[in-house]
């Protein structure tokens, strides 16, 4: 199939309990690319084990998925009717305290890395910390190395000052792959107007999240409400700088939330997003529960006034262009 006859459909972040059924849903939903989390709190060797697991998925389901490494692979997926899987890290723990592992991770196919995940890391401050001293000495070095090898800096879970400093320090546009504006929904993970202005003015990308804790009204949020927010976001920061980063955690057991929030750092239960009173994953809104539902957003965007070309950009065209600019090595 000619890639130019299709509109790209790209999800900027997922952490599903990967299975043949989910890969089939990706294809049924026409999803051409997914940025998949392959590590939260894992060290380097544990992350390699996760990559081995992905290699098995690619071996077993070559008709459905393949490992994406460049923006061109999205167009390959469009031609071949498959889904390109791009690796990302939601924490810098896989590079441990060794800057040389940045290039090794990139060689293994990692294309995104968050500089912190809720807590303070060796690189930057997470959004759940009371104080934010900004990017560390090690963090500045890692930013330069990520820029060199072609790994995108992701500040989805990072605090305000650290995020603003990362945007300023990076020689390449960065991404916030899965978060929503603070002016729409006040959650600890939401991003301020100042951050979103600086992000988009520098050419960075914002992936708008469909995870219930990030939605105004939670699981009761309507498609119209979400799409109206997308329209306001486009009005404020430009339609060229936004996409979808659903943060879909389909079919995951609640024990995975404990790993995401607590890792190995806490003996106490950390309820995480918004300090929810109950553990476990929240219910999703009925209009978005799996990859087949991503197409619902296209109609929702049309209903709030987006043109056909703008819908194509938000649903994947902007991510495609960002991927093409971001993943090559600077020598």
Give the helix/strand class. Answer: alpha/beta
Strand content: 5-15%
How can the largest sheet be summarized? 6 strands, parallel
Low-confidence runs: none
Can you give the mean pLDDT? 94
Question: From the coordinates shown, what is the CATH architecture?
Answer: Alpha-Beta Barrel
Structural shape: globular
CATH H-level superfamily title: Metal-dependent hydrolases
CATH topology (fold) name: TIM Barrel
Strand tally is: 9
* Overall domain count: 1
Order of SSEs, N→C?
EHEHEHEHEHEHEHEHEHHH
Q: Please compute the radius of gyration using only Cα atoms.
A: 18 Å
Share of helical residues:
25-40%
Please, how many helices?
11
State the name of the first-level CATH class. Answer: Alpha Beta
Gap from first CA to last CA:
35 Å
Characterise this structure.
This protein is an alpha/beta fold. The chain has helices at 20-28, 44-60, 72-80, 100-107, 137-149, 160-169, 193-201, 223-237, 254-262, 294-303, 308-326; strands spanning 10-14, 33-39, 65-67, 83-89, 110-114, 152-154, 175-176, 205-208, 242-244. It has one domain: Metal-dependent hydrolases (TIM Barrel, Alpha-Beta Barrel), CATH 3.20.20. Helix content is 39%, strand content 12%. Strands 1, 2, 3, 4, 5 and 6 form a six-stranded parallel beta sheet that branches. Helix 5 (137-149) links the parallel strand 5 and strand 6 (152-154).
List keywords for this structure.
TIM Barrel; six-stranded parallel sheet; 11 helices; 331 residues; alpha/beta
């Amino acid at each position: 199939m000619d890639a130019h006859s299709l509109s790209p459909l790209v999800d900027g972040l997922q952490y599903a309990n990967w299975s043949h059924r989910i890969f089939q849903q990706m294809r049924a939903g026409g999803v051409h690319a997914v940025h998949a989390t392959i590590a939260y709190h894992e060290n380097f060797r544990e992350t390699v084990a996760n990559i081995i697991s992905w290699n098995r998925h690619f071996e077993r389901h070559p008709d459905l998925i393949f490992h994406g490494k460049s923006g061109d692979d999205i167009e390959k997926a469009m031609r071949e009717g498959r889904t390109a899987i791009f690796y990302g890290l939601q924490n810098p723990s896989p590079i441990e305290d060794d800057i040389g592992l940045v290039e090794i991770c990139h060689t293994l196919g990692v294309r995104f890395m968050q500089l912190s995940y809720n807590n303070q890391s060796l690189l930057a401050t997470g959004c759940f910390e009371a104080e934010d001293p900004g990017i560390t000495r090690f963090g500045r070095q890692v930013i330069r190395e990520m820029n060199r090898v072609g790994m995108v800096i992701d500040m989805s879970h990072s605090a305000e000052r650290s995020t603003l400093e990362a945007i300023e320090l990076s020689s390449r546009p960065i991404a916030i792959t899965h978060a929503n504006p603070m002016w729409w929904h006040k959650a600890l993970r939401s991003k301020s107007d100042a951050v979103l202005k600086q992000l988009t003015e520098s050419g960075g990308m914002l992936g708008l999240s469909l995870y219930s804790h990030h939605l105004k009204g939670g699981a009761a949020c309507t498609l119209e409400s979400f799409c109206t927010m997308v329209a306001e976001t486009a009005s404020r920061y430009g339609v060229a700088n936004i996409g979808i980063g659903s943060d879909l955690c389909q079919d995951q057991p609640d024990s995975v939330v404990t790993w995401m929030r607590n890792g190995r750092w806490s003996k106490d239960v950390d309820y995480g997003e918004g300090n929810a009173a109950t553990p476990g994953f929240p219910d999703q809104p009925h209009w978005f529960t799996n990859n087949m539902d991503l197409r619902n957003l296209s109609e929702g965007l049309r209903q709030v006034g987006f043109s056909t070309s703008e819908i194509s950009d938000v649903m994947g065209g902007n991510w495609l262009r960002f991927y093409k600019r971001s993943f090559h090595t600077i020598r």
